[in-house]
Specification:
heterodimer, A: 460 residues, mainly alpha, three-stranded antiparallel beta sheet, two-stranded antiparallel sheet, 16 helices, 5 strands, globular, B: 325 residues, 0% strand
Amino acid sequence: MMGFQIVVLWSDVLIWLLVAAGAGVGVMIAKNPPLLAAWRRVGANRVGMASATVLLAFVLIGLLDSLHYRAHLESKPGQKAVFAVEVLSVLDALAAPLRSRNEKTYSAPFATRLYAKETMDVPGQGTVRDYPRLKHGGKHLGEREDEVAEDAAMTAFKAGVLAFVGWLGVFGAVAAVNRKKSPNLKLREAAFAWDAVLLTLLLILVFAVPLFWLSGQYHVFGTDKVGQDVLYQILKSVRTGLIIGLVTTLVMLPMAVLLGIVAGYFRGWVDDVIQYIYTVLNSIPGVLLIAAAVLMMQVVIDTNPQWFSTAAERADLRLLALCFILGITSWTGLCRLLRGETLKLRELEYIQAAQAFGVSSWRIIVRHILPNLMHIVIIALVMDFSGLVLAEAVLSYVGIGVDPTMTSFGTMINNARMELGREPVVWWSLAAAFSAMFILVLSANLFADAVRDAFDPRAA
Amino acid sequence: MLAYIVRRLLYAIPILIGVNLVTFALFFVVNTPDDMARMQLGVKRVTPEAIEKWKVERGYDKPLLWNSEAAGLNAAVDTIFFEKSARMFVGDFGRAEDGRDIAREIGNRMLPSLAIALPTFILGLFVTITFALTLAFFRATAFDFWGVVLCVAAMSISGLFYIIGGQYLISKVWRLVPISGFGDGMEAWRFLILPVLIGVVSGIGSSTRWYRTIFLEEVSKDYVRTARAKGLPETLVFFRHILRNALIPILTGVVVVIPMLFMGSLLTESFFGIPGLGSYTIDAINAQDFSVVRSMVFIGSVLYIVGLILTDISYTLVDPRIRFE
């Protein structure tokens, strides 16, 4: 029997905590009519819902990649169980063919032969220099190497039809539920933008299903320098991007909210101290503060190798530390916004009335001020996400980002950028990383706009 | 006015002290000099003697804050804090790992940084304001809509893509300008044109969108309606009234980055091989040269604070309603 040992990385804990927090906030929203109305406006926004669907697909990949385990190694009976050093995730298990079918080095998308010529022994012909056949890409074709286009198109078409049939099922189910709930309303007239969601879902399915189907036979995005499938790297990068974008805001949120409200509410010397702290932190240019902090963190990690039992744990801790550092450098903006808004709120009559009744300051903050700041917090949360994903790529390029062994859009770009100098050009790794990042960031930006429009109509 | 500026300058001093303390804490308290020595000398198999020698060579062998062995004033002066941190206030940054004087190196590298950053800044401001004004002029039309769509798409593209793509297309495929490098005198423009162009293009998306919102906010104000009501043509309303008033928030918003132009850009300079402060910082990060990074953090903060003071002053100059209380 294949046993396994569950590994819980710190970032997994935080990501699932985030999912739980999201569910909790969902329940809270359902009980709060103004917030619910705002989210309904988001739900009615077609662009917003289409981008939310794309984001959800990314989140799904990220969550699958956040359940880690160590596989059981075969051992003689009676011996103590031994587990592999390599930490795998559920996504790795699902994409096992992608992970394990490595080539020798670069190969182009849908190629059947390697990118570089090699000296080979061919029986009967002696040694020749030619492009060697790939070990895995297009293996099923055998001798019919020139039929790649027909074969791939045929497979893609079949998978596409399958995806379409599957989508029809989803469409039918949604339409049926809609008819039951509001018999007189057509789907495109519904309050929730079902049409946008379904259309996006169709696009995702028709694109993704053939892609994954083909990835079992070819390297659809090619392979990189060490022969690893680029599609697999893209899938792994999604989790890194999501963690940077989400955990960072989670880290900075409590500090920004607490200090911002306290400074605005109590004013006086508390306000002075908090303003001093954030002016000082704000004065240090972000990249330089991050660089200094990451350098220092690297020293700590390198001088204490005994803390980590696997390389994955070390890379994970570095990722989290990066989130913390990014959080510490980016909380000041939100803090200032919240302070200003609290200054305004505390002069309003209902707060004055609560103070006159003798309600404690803490209670006023929690009951009366915090709920009225929620829209600013939510807008900041979604607006920051795309910027953080982009920042990760830049920081990893500069060498102060994630651990070099961790797959991320930044490390992919960093490894691939020198290859543009080759003849012929190795473009696929860069193109795939940039496209995936573009889709993720674009949908995050569009979703953020929809949220901002719904929560703060005058800023549109 | 003078009293106001002096007060602003005095206000900057505690902030600079704060920055100095933060960098000191980050570089000497979070990690001891021993850790840094081990990092520089290679983590494995380093003898205590080698660490001690490394520390003595760089003056890291002194106590952190208080030297109890020294007498009198020297107890506070003969310490790492005074030698390495406090002396940055007078422009003494010490030496880099390669033994060169950091202050002189910074002086040499400021001009190349400025040669890229200043044209990028001015040209970028001109292009984005023009674009944003055009969008605001054709507001609520298909042109405006697709313009905004383009902006959102442009700001979703990684900055790395602009640089890598631009270098590949313009320098490698079309062979119009050299891929990277830097020259003196009249030859310099051939090296500068591509980084400046890419810098401008990569900034278009987010800035245009931001300026367009400012213009649209201005469009809905009362004085604009008055101008239209008295029969002014739309172009005149835009250029004489809206543009001028919208420039106030835009210009005061960008004043803060002007001193930072000296620092250059990390990405652009390292990709294009410009011998400026940005590439200096990157090289220091890669070589884990702590004294250089520490100096750059301090200079960057000083320039930012100068920018803040300039912003305050520019507000009072541009908008007479603001008084120097």
